[in-house]
Design goal:
heterodimer; A: mainly alpha; 5 helices; B: mainly alpha; 4 helices
Chain lengths: 83, 90
Amino acid sequence: MYGWSVDPEEVYLNSELAGELYEAVQSLPFEYRIPLILKDIEGYSIKQISSLLALKEPTTKTRIHRARLSVRERLSHYFENRR
Amino acid sequence: MKEFFKCQECVDLLTDYLEGNLEPQVREKLDEHLAGCAPCINFVRSFEKSTTMLHLLKEQRVDVPSDVQARLKNFLREEIVALSTERNKD
């Protein structure tokens, strides 16, 4: 049960947004999706991800950056409506 | 003559900018651009927001291919072994 201090609209928006985020991440190509999941969701370092995926560190960073740009693009309508 | 960043250059540097990985002079140039470019400011804010919100997915199931899961487990096992070897040296 939520306390009085929690805004129900905010809770709803967050759950709705989580669904959209999930779709945005799942729609990424494999080579971008996995580094993004490991970095921003699982919290691994660039070094660890590069080692795990056998990538050079600059490649890992570039893929994560592009994946983040793509996720932002997918959610751009959300930010425009909230501005 | 002073060189200014173009919007695309700012976009290219956003991850390094937000993670504090830029050289001071590059960061300064980017800050100068942002100070006079409202669309880029909005872009930075939405980029930062969408990136930080990814943690919401931590609670949800995100499919990771089985071969990556297996490599992840091996990788973590090696990390643990390396860590315990390091500790045993002390």
